[in-house]
From TrEMBL:
Species: candidate division WOR-3 bacterium
Transmembrane helix recorded as keyword: no
Name of the protein: CRISPR-associated endoribonuclease Cas6
Gene3D superfamilies assigned: 3.30.70.1890, 3.30.70.1900
Name of the coding gene: cas6
UniProt-listed Pfam families: Cas_Cas6_C
Domain CRISPR associated protein Cas6 C-terminal: 116-239
InterPro entries registered for this protein in UniProt: Cas_Cas6_C, CRISPR-assoc_prot_Cas6, CRISPR-assoc_prot_Cas6_N_sf
Amino acid sequence: MRIKVLFEGTEVQTIDKDYRSYFISFLKMVFERSNLYHEVFSKKKYRPYAFSPYLGEDFRIEEDKIQIGKNLSILFASGDPVIITNFYNGVLKLKNEGIKLWNKDIKVKDIELLPYRKIKSTRVLFKTMGICVLSDKRVSAKDFENFYIIPSDDLSRFNICLYERTNERFRYLTKNNEIHPIRITYLKELKEVVVKHYNGYVRGFKGIFEVEGSPEILQFVYDFGFGVRTGQGFGLLEILEEL
C-alpha cells in the first residue's frame, strides 16, 4: 500500500545534502498526530514502512548543497494497513495546520492513495526509487567499504547479506517466523552512490535489477523496502515487470 503526499513551497530553495532528516522529521510530525508515535519510534529497530522523497523539477546538486524545487513530494509505503491508515489521517491533520521544513513554510497540497499492487510471481524486475543500502553484519561499521555492500562488489556475498537482513526484518515486522529465499539474479543497470546522511556517509546503489524469491518475500520488500535503513528514506522500489 502506498500514499503520495504532494507539498507546495513558496520558492526554489538551497538546503543541505543531508536532506532525508527533514523528511524523517515530517514523518514524526505525522505520527505525533495519530496514536502510533510511541509504537513506531520508541524502539531503535526496524520501521514498519519505507519512503522516498522527490525534490522537484528544479533539483540540482551544488557542491555541499542541493537546490530543490517548489513542488515536492514523498512516496510512503507500508504493508501494514494500520500504519497506512494512521499515516493518511495524520497527513490530513497537517494539511490543515501547515508545517515547517528546513525553517521554511511548506503546505501539504494533496494526498493520493495509490492502487494496491499484489505480486504473484517469483521473479520481479525492480527499479530503485532513490537509493538502496545493504550492510554486512559480520563486518565492522568502521570498515566503510566492506560494511556497506553493493551487488557489483561480490554478488554471492551480497545475496547472503540480503537473505539474512530481509528475513530478519520480515520476522520482526510480520511476526511470521517463516524463512524465505531471496536473491538478485540479474543486474540490468547499477550505479554506486555515496550520500551524506546524519552527518556521516552511507554507501549504496541505484538501478534496475531482477530479484528472485517467494511472492511473499518479494511483496515484503516492495511494501517495506529493500535492504536496510528503509525507515530513513532508502530502499523503496518500483515494479517494472513481473517475470
